[in-house]
Design a protein that fits this description.
The protein is α+β, with helices and mostly antiparallel strands. It folds into two domains: 45 residues, no CATH class; 153 residues, Mannose-Binding Protein A, Chain A (Roll), CATH 3.10.100. 29% of the residues lie in helices and 16% in strands. The protein contains five helices and nine strands; from the N terminus they run αββββαααβββββα. The strands form three sheets. It has a four-stranded antiparallel beta sheet, with no helix packed on it. A hairpin with a 5-residue loop joins strand 1 and strand 2. Helix 1 packs antiparallel against helix 5. It is globular, with a radius of gyration of 21 Å.
Length: 207
């Protein structure tokens, strides 16, 4: 009986350490990598002004947390890289579920509690501290509008639109599919597992 209680307590402790709260949205994975548990993407830190082509090349050339194949966030996940001449989900009025199609809109309105017409830096959301280089200005999306224009999102007021790919300079932000961590998760899980085996061995010796 004591052994089963010990095993249950240890398993519960390990689960609480390696699991993510269902209410969490952004998780700091270290090294400037922030994991969105809802969209299942990892955000790097916001970066510099670039043309759309240069921003895409910059993201594609990144290696962070041992991961390559970074990209710019989509204005429409369904459309992906586009071209997309439709209307992106307006996260200022859409439901949380519908807003998930717009990665930049989701960051502004859902993750960082932005308000339409107001700078994201005034939202007061504590998760703003996860992105110390975030600017209250336009960021490129990775979704093309047509062969000459691309979509972007305004972190000054929560608006979105399309502009010339080659003649415009806006800020760059990279994301990666899935959970990318600066600290390898398998190594941490292995450590917890080793601790569990040690405790079970101790329990057997006491018996």
């Amino acid at each position: 009986m004591k052994k089963s209680h010990l095993l249950g307590s240890v398993c519960a402790s390990i689960f609480s350490l390696i699991s993510i709260s269902p209410h969490a949205a952004l998780v700091d994975n270290g090294g400037g990598l922030i994991y969105d548990t809802v969209l299942d993407i990892t955000w790097a830190q916001p970066d510099a002004l670039r043309t759309w082509d240069d921003a895409n090349a910059w993201a594609a050339g990144l290696t962070l947390g041992g991961a390559t194949e970074w990209r710019l966030p989509y204005i429409s996940v369904a459309a992906g890289a586009g071209p997309f001449t439709g209307t992106p989900v307006d996260c200022s009025t859409a439901t949380e579920l519908a807003c998930r199609d717009n990665e930049l809109g989701y960051m502004f309105y859902q993750n960082l509690s932005g308000t339409l017409g107001q700078s994201i830096l005034t939202s007061g959301d504590p998760d703003l501290a996860l992105f110390p280089s975030l600017q209250s200005i336009y960021y490129w999306s990775g979704t093309e509008f047509d062969s000459s224009n691309a979509w972007l999102f305004d972190f000054f007021g929560g608006n979105q639109g399309s502009v010339s790919q080659d003649l415009s300079y806006y800020y760059s932000w990279a994301v990666h599919a899935g959970n990318v961590s600066a600290v390898p998760v398998p190594a941490a899980v292995w450590l917890f597992g080793s601790g569990l085996m040690g405790l079970l061995g101790l329990a057997r010796r006491k018996r």
